Amino acid sequence: MTRSIPRARSLRRAQTSAEAKLWRVLRNRALNGWKFRRQHPIDRYIVDFACIEAKFIVEVDGATHSTDAELVRDAMRTEILESLGFALLRIPNADIHDHRDGVRETILAALERRDTV
């Protein structure tokens, strides 16, 4: 875990444009008071955005997440994170760029479902 902290810091500095846009929606409890962390270490992974209170993760997926090898790796990652009690939502870059309000509402709805379960 100690090795992942410098890596997480590096990822925060080198965020993608989609991650930057989504971070503006999530930061400072802007999403109905939910606190999110970006590039947060969980187990052996660094997740894009995490709401620890709700055990909820948002992953921003670019074009590299469409290859067979990446799909298998993402499925294994999702399985491990879910085994730790986290729910995971994957959002394509294009949706963040083209439908940011819809993405916001999708995340909020998923959080509210987690909160009532």
TrEMBL record:
Residues 7-112 form the DUF559 domain. InterPro entries: DUF559, Endonuclease_DUF559_bact, Restrct_endonuc-II-like. Its EC number is 6.1.1.6. Keywords: Endonuclease, Hydrolase, Ligase, Nuclease. GO terms for molecular function: endonuclease activity; lysine-tRNA ligase activity. This is Very-short-patch-repair endonuclease. The lineage of its organism: Bacteria, Pseudomonadati, Pseudomonadota, Alphaproteobacteria, Hyphomicrobiales.
